[in-house]
Amino acid sequence: MGQARSSSSPQVILMGLDSAGKSTLLARLLTGQVMDTSPTIGFNVGTLDLDKNTSLTVWDVGGQKSMRSSWRYYLDDCKALVFVVDSSDPGRMGEAQKALKKILSEDNLQGVPLMVLANKKDLPNSMTIREVSTHLDLPSHTDRLWEIQGCSALKGLGLQQAFVSVHKLIRKS
């Protein structure tokens, strides 16, 4: 029963630079708990139930520089890309923008909707959504549906809403 259901749930890929909070975010979504995480080597995957009839299979892919060249291998059957950034770290926004631009140029992602999650919004010096959007040059992505939302993986703020929005983006695309 569970197998049939998970194979029919849309594949969502969670990407972003190392230390953006992807694994913490996925663990919080799946368990409701904050878990100690270590840098992801490879990937984590889980099925997120949005309601009785709707689930998403979420793949959290490691974000270290050495792993980014293999990101493209996770894109088969990807229905939405969720790109996570650390909104409290303006010094890495240029690197994040380059990584996002590179992955969005992959053929497998043509027409695939994008959700950017500005994580760590609970921290006092986090950037605004507009600042993150500008740093990542999101307005230039006129060829795909995209949204940006703030969240806090640690506090669990905005996560469920973000993935409900991801599901809506998938349905629109």
Automatic annotation (TrEMBL):
The keyword Nucleotide-binding applies. Keywords: GTP-binding, Lipoprotein, Magnesium, Metal-binding, Myristate, Nucleotide-binding. It comes from the Eukaryota. Mg(2+) binds at S23, T40. The keyword Oxidoreductase does not apply. GO terms for molecular function: GTP binding; GTPase activity; metal ion binding. GTP binds at G16, L17, D18, S19, A20, G21, K22, S23, G63, N119, K120, K121, D122. InterPro entries: P-loop_NTPase (IPR027417), Small_GTP-bd (IPR005225), Small_GTPase_ARF (IPR024156), Small_GTPase_ARF/SAR (IPR006689). May play a role in apoptosis. May act as a tumor suppressor. Belongs to the small GTPase superfamily. Arf family. This is ADP-ribosylation factor-like protein 11. It comes from Echeneis naucrates (Live sharksucker). The gene is arl11.
